[in-house]
Amino acid sequence: MSTRPGAPDGRPDTLLVTLTGKDRPGVTSSVFSALTSAGVEVIDIEQIILRRRLILGVLVTAPRDWKKVARAVEQTGADLGMLVEIERGTGDNRARAAGRAHVTVIGSPLKAGHMAAVAGRIADTGGNIDRIERMARYPVTAIDLHVSGADPDHLRTLLAAEASAQGIDIAVQPATLLRRGVRLIVMDVDSTLIQGEVIEMLAAHAGHEAEVAAVTEAAMRGELDFEASLRERVKLLSGLDASTLDRVYDAIVVTPGARTMVRTLRRLGYRFAIVSGGFSQITDRLAADLGIHFARANELEIVDGKITGEIVGAVVDRAGKAQALREFADEVGVPIAATIAIGDGANDLDMLNAAGLGVAYNARKIVQEAADTTVNVPYLDSILYLLGISREEIEAADAEAGIVTPSPPV
Q1: 180: CB partners within 8 A, 6+ apart
Q2: How many Cα atoms are found within 13 Å in the side-chain-facing hemisphere of 100?
Q3: Is residue 221 classed as helix, strand or coil in its secondary structure?
Q4: Helix, strand, coil percentages for the chain (3-state, nearest 5)
């Protein structure tokens, strides 16, 4: 059935059909069955389900006898026990404005006041929230907002301040194809991929844990030259039996969610690297255990089965981490814009700034202030939500592979 031009530019008359009610199988098929006899064209469809309540919106071209179609849809809604609203108009949806971005909000918990603050800052930029979808409901709540009409860089600056004020995590990324493509993830190791600092664990065996911990903390805050402080700390390990490295490795606790993140993104073809100011005797084994493609770290000198207190070769410092990221990106064949760096200390700053997306993970203040975004929840797989991967998709992939994941609270 033909449509009548509804505007001088020839845009057709359209009908917006909205149904609201209890979700059940067959709702969508029933609505389209009611529309079939009119021969209308489907222009757009949106559907969401919240606590088993369905909201279905269908935009179709309007036939000449549009009232007959409206009655058919209204009868279908009545049969289903659903509310039906039909609005006649002209044309399609407005195109999304330039300046498109994904704004991912993570909270534990995420409160109404948090979302009010985020939405307010988006409005302040003149941006519009076009779509909202939940990425996870446990162990954190993660919400992805599709925003248009706002400069992503300006939006990131505003929302970074709001995230700090509200005590939540907010990531802003331009809505480009890079978010969907294969990327390189480069991670720091100590206090990022694993809990704690390896050099402090080694120092505990040498009787210098407190002394080394104090220097490490100052170095991670950016108060000391990293290479000089590292050499100072390594000297305190002199005389330790090399077998101590095995005992320390066995005591390492991998950060919650790290294995899930690597496992999930490897399925999608992502590449991983770890770059550490720690020691290759630990990081190489860690990379092999987790399935990480590249690793770079400092090498402890070992002579006659003893740690000498010296480092072999050049130190992997702040600049060295950024250089490693660039070299790994070249080897993988991805642009720098398609890299993601994750770290917590001042020696990660160059790497975070060099990457397409720099993530400060439970980081020192100096790092949080400089990074593109922060993640302060204790689950490394929260990074997946920034990439548009939902908890449900992660669990479905694990289930298919026979991996059992914890059940969410009811």
Answers
A1: 388
A2: 11
A3: coil
A4: 40, 30, 30
Q: Which residues pair with 359 in a beta bridge?
A: 342, 373
Q: Is 190 a catalytic residue?
A: yes
Contact yes or no for 13/1 (Cβ under 8 A): no
What sections of 137-294 are H helices per DSSP? 152-166, 198-206, 209-220, 226-235, 243-251, 258-267, 280-290
Instruction: Dihedral sign for Cα 150, 133, 358, 335, please.
Output: negative
Q: Are 266 and 244 in contact (CB under 8 A)?
A: no
* pLDDT (tens digit per residue) in 1-43: 333 445 555 567 899 999 999 999 999 999 999 999 888 999 9
- Residue 376, token pair as written in the block: 């302060």
Question: Encoding tokens for residue 372?
Answer: 């593109």
What's the rounded Cα separation, in Å, for the pair 18 and 13?
Answer: 17
Select which of 188, 317, 344, 381 is catalytic.
188
List the structure tokens of 330.
């070249």
Residues 176-211 have pLDDT tens digits of 877 777 799 999 999 999 999 999 999 999 999 999
Catalytic site includes residue 188: yes
Q: Is residue 5 reached through a cis peptide bond, with omega within 30 degrees of 0 on the bond before it?
A: no
State the catalytic residue, choosing from 144, 169, 190, 350: 190
In degrees, rounded to 5, the angle at the alpha carbon of residue 262 between the alpha carbons of residues 258 and 265 is 135
Give the type of residue at 281: Q
User: What is the chain's mean pLDDT, rounded?
Assistant: 92
pLDDT at 35: 92
What is residue 210's DSSP assignment? Answer: H
pTM for the model stands at 0.84
List the beta bridge partners of residue 34: none
Q: State the pLDDT at residue 1.
A: 34
Determine the average pLDDT of the residues in 100-128: 95
Radius of gyration of the chain (CA): 27
Alpha-carbon distances, residue 376 vs 30, 221, 230 (angstroms): 46, 17, 26
The C-alpha atoms of residue 271 and residue 209 are separated, in whole angstroms, by 35
CB 273 within 8 A of CB 343: no
Using DSSP, state whether 197 is helix, strand or coil. coil
Q: Residue 57 has which token pair?
A: 């919106």
Q: What is the reported pLDDT for 37?
A: 83
